[in-house]
Amino acid sequence: SLGSVTTTASSSPTEDTSPTSVSLCESVLEELLPSLGSGGHAEVCRRPCTFFALGECSNGASCGYCHLPHTEKPIHLDKRQRDMVQRLSLADLLATVVRAMKTRAAATGCLEAASEVLRIMESWAQETSEQQRPNPQGYRPCANHWSKLTYFLGKMSFQALLGVALRHPHVEQLRAEELRDALDRMRLHFVLMVSESHA
Predict the structure, then answer these.
(1) Looking at residue 60, what DSSP letter applies?
(2) Phi, psi (5° rounding) for residue 66?
(3) What residues pair up with 48 in beta bridges, in sequence order?
(4) What is the pLDDT of residue 23?
(5) Phi and psi (nearest 5°) for 48?
(6) Which are the contacts of 92, defined by CB distance < 8 A and separation ≥ 6?
(7) Backbone phi and psi for residue 151, each to the nearest 5 degrees, phi listed first
(8) How would residue 140 be classed by pLDDT, with cut points 50, 70 and 90?
(9) How many Cα atoms occupy the beta-carbon half-sphere of 159 within 13 Å?
(10) 50-95, pLDDT tens digit by residue?
(11) Cα 168 to chain centroid, rounded
(12) How many CB atoms lie within 10 A of CB 107?
């Protein structure tokens, strides 16, 4: 769960992290959270630290990658589903992904932490819907394939869903950066929660 702490696992032994973040609660983190990158495990944490898995991560609590076990196999869309996502209008994709992200945040108890990301996503979806007029001749996947796609989206983690949206070919770089920055603040939120609960 997002607030829990336990101990796996792609990082560089010299990974840089924000000086503010590192000095913030390092002594507490060493006891309660294996690394800064573990914040929000497993919904929004960084990818597993391979150096930690080998017993070679020298960054300790300041490591920007996750040091907690990733026991569940991540959900990945197959080639047909990835092609489907790419062919959808951005408006249709965002509407679908926002619904899935809100459901996921509620199910994992992180609606408050996810509020900034969700606010940006909802605003983006609204803007895109208003800009893109409905096209009767536009791409519409068959009902069976659409059902399978939405099923797998419903199984994805919060940050994996965000990744699906950001890989669409019509995503602007500034929007992607805004959302990645908001996701980083969401991760820090969980680090601070752990620190403050044991202050």
Answers:
(1) G
(2) -80, 135
(3) 66
(4) 47
(5) -60, 145
(6) none
(7) -60, -50
(8) confident
(9) 20
(10) 999 899 899 988 899 999 999 888 899 999 999 999 999 999 999 9
(11) 16
(12) 12
Question: In this model, does residue 1 exceed pLDDT 70?
Answer: no
Strands (E), 8-128: none
CA atoms within 13 A on the CB side of 79: 0
pLDDT at 162 over 60: yes
Tokens encoding 94:
């965002």
| Rg over CA atoms, the chain | 18
What gap in Å lies between CA 57 and CA 38, rounded to an integer?
Answer: 14
Measure the CA–CA gap between 95 and 88, rounded to whole angstroms.
11
Residue 192 confidence (pLDDT): 84
- Neighbouring CB atoms inside 10 A of 137's CB total 5
Say which residues have a Cβ less than 8 Å from residue 151's Cβ, sequence separation at least 6. Answer: none
Residues contacting residue 64 through CB under 8 Å, at least 6 positions apart: 11, 15, 16, 17, 35, 36, 37, 46
SS3 (DSSP) at 179 = helix
Half-sphere exposure of 72 (CA within 13 A, CB side): 10
Structure tokens given for 165: 């949206």
Average pLDDT for 124-135? 85
Burial class (CB in 10 A: 0-12, 13-18, 19+), 135: exposed
What whole-number distance in Å separates Cα of residue 87 and Cα of residue 143?
A: 15
Alpha-helical segments (H) within 74-157: 79-87, 90-107, 115-131, 143-153
